[in-house]
From TrEMBL:
Domain Tyrosine specific protein phosphatases: 11-59, 277-350
The protein, known as: protein-tyrosine-phosphatase
UniProt-listed Enzyme Commission number(s): 3.1.3.48
PROSITE patterns, A to Z: TYR_PHOSPHATASE_1 (PS00383), TYR_PHOSPHATASE_2 (PS50056), TYR_PHOSPHATASE_PTP (PS50055)
Gene3D superfamilies in UniProt: Protein tyrosine phosphatase superfamily (3.90.190.10)
Highest taxon listed in the record's lineage: Eukaryota
Domain Tyrosine-protein phosphatase: 11-68, 100-359
């Protein structure tokens, strides 16, 4: 009984205090346009000891309120999305830019410290990064099982990304290099990822965007894994390839399906979101039908731009179905805390809005 009493006395001060302070300050901002976090915490502590228990919680209150003030509320009921987009495309009063541009710029304001990229910056790993400025955060990077005696053998330029209802639902990764192809297959196997989404051609604008990491006609061996091409289906906007992957060490095998979207233009974004939305639907349907419990691995070239769009829209469309609300800003912001530069350009950001609207129905339908 004493233990129970102790736990009850300890509860209801830390996180509860944070919630109460943030709620009170949001009200105060709305009515008085002022903030006094220190004063409010002091007042609460006079009424109940230890309200807001740790320095981390105190910092969190400041961060949360700063975000509320700078970013505002970007969640929109789906039925109001058309009107919200219309508003975002207007030039902001007193500014020389649209609301959409401002919203995208706000995303870029939080920069990551280089200490967050420990493994990616190691000399033994630097050559494994396709672009020197796009690397996975240490906290969310996908770790491979280390190979004894091989320094950096646990590293691949890939990040775990949370989905709408599931943690680590996706792996966002760069298009494999010739030197990292074996690591890529090792990652798929070790993390039980049996669905791969490819959002680039092998070459675009005269440059290699991704090494051909799969065999075209006959089986090939990548370190421990034998990959057999089983089937290839050419659809209007994508190619579906099926491979049998066998671990040569114990003879275990599984099927990996690769969806390559072929309709993304070499510059900019698709004119219509409809084809991409259908593609997302097809990938998720196949995952439900055949996929193991592992994440969907998504890559373009650097693994942030088109990859970010695919994951953003996957989350946004699912949330729309279940909750009837849309928040593209916070979805992209959340993705960027897990991998830098997700949804890389303003074009791509705007495309997310457009595709979400097209998912709801035609422009004309929502204009009336």
């Amino acid at each position: 009984m004493d233990e129970l009493g102790q736990s009850m006395r300890c509860a209801g001060v830390g996180r509860t205090g944070c919630f109460i302070v943030i709620d009170a300050m949001l009200e105060r901002i709305k009515h008085e346009k002022t903030v006094d976090i220190y004063g409010h915490v002091t007042l609460m502590r006079a009424q109940r000891n230890y309200m807001v228990q740790t320095e981390d919680q105190y910092i969190f209150i400041h961060d949360a309120l700063l975000e509320a003030v700078t970013c505002g509320n970007t969640e929109v009921p789906a039925r109001n999305l058309y009107a919200y987009i219309q508003k975002l495309t207007q030039i902001e009063t007193g500014e020389n830019v649209t609301g959409m541009e401002l919203e995208f710029k706000r995303l870029a304001s939080s920069k990551a410290h280089t200490s967050r990229f420990i493994s990616a910056n190691l000399p033994c790993n630097k050559f494994k990064n396709r672009l020197v400025n796009i690397m996975p955060y240490e906290s969310t990077r996908v770790c491979l099982q280390p190979i004894r005696g091989v320094e950096g053998s646990d590293y691949i330029n890939a990040s775990f990304i949370d989905g709408y209802r599931q943690q680590k639902a996706y792996i966002a990764t760069q298009g494999p290099l010739a030197e990292t192809t074996e690591d890529f297959w090792r990652m798929l196997w070790e993390h039980n990822s049996t669905i791969v989404v490819m959002l680039t051609k092998l070459r675009e604008m005269g440059r290699e965007k991704c090494h051909q990491y799969w065999p075209a006609e006959r089986s090939a061996r990548y370190q421990y894994f034998v990959v057999d091409p089983m089937a290839e289906y050419n659809m209007p906007q994508y190619i579906l390839r099926e491979f049998k992957v066998t671990d040569a060490r114990d003879g275990q095998s599984r099927t990996v399906r690769q969806f390559q979207f072929t309709d993304w233009p070499e510059q900019g974004v698709p004119k219509s979101g409809e084809g991409f939305i259908d593609f997302i639907g097809q990938v998720h349907k196949t995952k439900e039908q055949f996929g193991q419990d592992g994440p969907i691995s998504v890559h373009c070239s650097a693994g942030v731009g088109r990859t970010g769009v695919f994951i953003t829209l996957s989350i946004v469309l699912e949330r729309m179905r279940y909750e009837g609300v849309v928040d593209i800003f916070q979805t992209v912001k959340m993705l960027r805390t897990q991998r830098p530069a997700m949804v890389q350009t303003e074009d791509q950001y705007q495309f997310c809005y457009r595709a979400a609207l097209e998912y709801l129905g035609s422009f004309d339908h929502y204009a009336t």
